[in-house]
Amino acid sequence: MRRLAYEAADCGLLSADWAAGIRRVKGVKKLGMRLGNWLTAEQGLALWQTPDQQRLKRKRDRAMLALLLACGLRRHEAVALRLDHLQQREEHWAIVDLVGKSGHLRTVPVPDWVRSELNDWLIAAGIDRGNLFRRVNKVGKPWGEGITEKAVWHIVKESARAAGIATLAPHDLRRTCARLCHASGGELDQIQFLLGHQSVQTTERYLGCKQRIRSAVNDRIGIEPSP
Question: pTM to 2 decimals?
């Protein structure tokens, strides 16, 4: 409606005062949280360990799942990853200059165990440049220059089915990453940096946060009188 008001005012169909009034009308307040699934830590562990390490395709799937769960990447970010994205920063492995939503650049820390899973796949596939993830043909050989977002969807679905998880989408792994980081003591702003959210409110929706009244956050902050 605001956009329509702009166009109408530009065309002389609506007065400037009316258009300004429409611009001041607030949008509908969003209540609740975005629907989605979150995995427990136990389910997450079972999921990425579901693919066996004997077949090359499963090594790839295992590395992909570990990356999605621990680093909270979107599908398009995962398929666009190149070997030169993996660099060391402050004595820690990281994905550097990752292009996210709306072209937003960020750096994503990579846990050592995820780097190890990636190494297993890269060494077995003989990949030393270009895209991290490739197709694997029927005889177990890597081919092509990369994989598609649809392939990531299939990897998640097949692994979830094998792990006994009924309903799961790739983006649920991103939500799970956020919630597990928060549960382990991660600060909200650091989780926001990790996921590349422009707004902290988006991160809060991913976490599914609810206010706690019993054992409230301000009960013990160091300024209360001694008992």
Answer: 0.76
